[in-house]
Structures are given as C-alpha cells and as structure tokens.
UniProtKB/TrEMBL annotation:
Top-level class of the enzyme under EC nomenclature: ligase
Protein name (record): Tyrosine--tRNA ligase
Lineage, opening ranks: Bacteria, Pseudomonadati, Pseudomonadota, Alphaproteobacteria, Sphingomonadales
SUPFAM superfamilies cross-referenced by the UniProt entry: Alpha-L RNA-binding motif, Nucleotidylyl transferase
Matches recorded under HAMAP family: Tyr_tRNA_synth_type1
A GO CC term attached to the entry: cytosol
Pfam families: tRNA-synt_1b
Transmembrane segments: none
Cross-referenced InterPro entries: aa-tRNA-synth_I_CS, aa-tRNA-synth_Ic, Rossmann-like_a/b/a_fold, S4_RNA-bd_sf, Tyr-tRNA-ligase, Tyr-tRNA-ligase_bac-type, Tyr-tRNA-ligase_bac_1
Amino acid sequence: MTHTSSLLRLLDERGYIHQLTDAEGLDTLAAKQVVPGYIGFDPTAPSLHVGHLVSIMMLRQLQRAGHKPIVVMGGGTGKIGDPSFKDEARKLLTEDTIAQNVASIRRVFERFLTFGDGPTDAIMVDNADWLDKLEYIPFLRDIGQHFSINRMLSFDSVKTRLDREQSLSFLEFNYMILQAYDFLELSRRAGCRLQMGGSDQWGNIVNGIELSRRVDGTQVFGLTTPLLTNADGSKMGKTVGGAVWLNEDQLSHFDYWQFWRNTDDRDVGKRLRLFTDLPLDEIERLEALQGSEINAAKIVLANEATKLCRGEDASKAAEATAQTTFAGGGLGEDLPTIEVGPEGIRAGAACTALGFVASNGEAKRKIAENAVRLDDQLVEDVALLIAVPAGESRKLSLGKKKHGIIKGI
C-alpha cells in the first residue's frame, strides 16, 4: 500500500516492516500527530548485542520521522525472562544484577536517540516502576480475566516450546500478560500508541493491543520487523567468537567494526538500509558495486554502523587499525590486546583470552585445523609457550580476519 505518513514510508523503504496490526489506522494517526512508540529491552546482560540493533534503529527512525521513542527497560519483566522461542528457562537474575545491567545498557541508547522533555524527545522508563507494585489478587481480577488460556497456548512462541516437550514454567507463562500490561500502562502514562519489536514478539504485542481495547477502549497499534538472517540463512549476529556486543567494554571497537566489514556481499544493501542513516540513493549506488569494488561499500557500512554505536573517533580508529593490520602487515592500535609477564602464555589460552574462541577446547581444534598463526608463522601446538619481552608485542591471528596483540610487561 501507499503510505501517507513519513513514518511508515521511512520504515517501509528501509525494510523494517514485517507485520502491522492496522496499517491504515496507524498511517492515518502518524500523518496527523506525534505518535509515541515503545520497544522493551530486558536487561539479561551488561550489554545489548547486535541482535537488538534493528529495534534500536527502529526507535531512531521513529524519532527521525518526527515521533516520540519510548525505551522500556525491563527491570520488572527481566526478573522472569521472556520465554518466546527459547528452549529452556532463563537463569533468574538478582535485583542487584538487573540494576547493574540496566545502568550499563542505558549508555548505548544515548548515542542513537535524543533524550529530553520535548514532544519528540526520547524517554526511558523502567517497567519495575509499575510491575513491582502490583498486588496479585487485584491483578488477576482486573487484568487476568481478559486473557484466554486457549488463545495463549495457540501462540507460536508457546507452542514451539510445548511441542518440543520442554517445560514451560507458570512463571514464564505469565510473561506475556505482564508485557501486555506494560502497553496498557504506557498508554495511560505516556499516551503510547505503538509497540514495536521483532517478529517473535507478535503474540505479546497483540495481547497488549487487545488488553488496551478491552480495559480502556483505547486504540493502539503493533508493528514487527522481519527475522534478520544472513544470506546463508544463519541468524545475524551469531559468530564463532560469541555475541557481537554493543558496549565497548564487552567488545573492542575494532572487532565491532570488523563484524560489519565482514558482511556477505549479498547482505550489504539490506544492512545499509537497516543500520545506517545513509540516503537511499547512496545505498542503491553502493549495493550496485560489483566484484572487489563491493569492499568499498562494506567499509562504508562498517564506518557508518560503528560511528552510530561507538562514535566517530572509534570508527576512524578501527578503520585505521584495519588498514595497518591488513594492508600494511603491522599491528593496529585498536586490536584486542592482552598483557603477559615473563612467564608468557600458552597459545590455546591466548586464543581464548583474546576472544577468538569461547573455550580452550575450541582453541585446540582451531590450532589442529592450522588456523592460528603467531607473527604470521603457523602454530601447531596448543601448549606452545608464547614469551614476549617487556615492552615488545607479538601478533596472534585466527584465520584471515581475527587478530590480536600480546604485549610483554
């Protein structure tokens, strides 16, 4: 359909829209007024990862189109954990851990969104502010009556778990009710009219829309994004070395930049649309590049994505490190680094410490595959002792794309 609002035009053109509960109704509303829209993020770790980035960018696009982003930190729902499409229950976190994770995660949003008191300025709220105060019996009576167990069991996020005969606790089953209540509460507190999220959140979003209609008679809307996969069908953001974290204390600037630089040729255009602010005509020019020229588009993607998440200085430093490491054969300053004393470090342990692999066992396999080099010389023994004199450095590499520095102290 042809959209009249700049919001839906922008989201549609850049590939954010998978499902909409009422496209015409939302389009009409967004064309005539500021629409506050929210996405929730459960603080299950000190940092969000690149799998969350499409949601963050969607809030950014909401603001760019003249509307109001609401970031909901799941200080309340994080105590349960979203069971959607999970094989098993999440580990329950303590309140102190949740509070520390929330504080750590907040920093990322300040780079993508403009916060303030204006009509289109972003705000951040914590659903613990209202969920922690709920009383069980009144909540069951006032809210629980609007939910059908038959309907809840029909959602794919629940059916998948049950079909695999994996236990779904009553605690987790309540998650979708609490998320629906979040939407009702945000509608009342902040005039929120839109909830957005990944395609796995469709059932939860629909529940919130129906609850708002039944309890308050308020019309609200839902929008989900497509499941993001790489051209080879694998899930975006899953790498051999683990999650691609957004916080720099979880992942170096260079490794973050390199993740984008290593994009498959077939995914360049899609990622430029979703994860940068570049104009569409420039993206069309870049994705049309052929052969080795597509590498120039990947560098633009890496620079733009890193600039948004880590800042312009980090983007420039990472690109300079890549040029030094790959083109010049030297040691870029932004490479992941470990320091060792006179006792040195074993090759397998160094691979793990630099984040190349998740375990010493995996390091052993990579070395057996002839994938690890020390100063460009093949490493054949996982127990090889790497000694580095004080003040000097050596380069350890896994394959052609992962490099790190071992410094002697």
